[in-house]
Amino acid sequence: MKADDPRMANVDCAIARIGYLYGQTGIQIAEQWVVSHIEALLAVTEGRSHNPAAFPGFGEGTADETARRIIARLLDAGWRPPDADCLDLPATPNEAS
Description:
Helices cover 53% and strands 0% of the residues. The chain is mostly helical.
């Protein structure tokens, strides 16, 4: 995405904006976020194996929590879920019944 792309209005994350400005693709930015969150989870898990009170501000340190953090970062970086049509799902829950 280029700096003048109107979709940049969807990018809330300053770090992702900088990545786009320096020519990184959305995939490259996503890879960086995923790697950093997995590395953080591994470091916290290792630290807590020696001292259960380590990293008190990190949160639960679960895979689910890490997945939520990654998704939040991707959304902040301008990623959006696919349209329901793309997934061949009904547009509203009422249509499913």
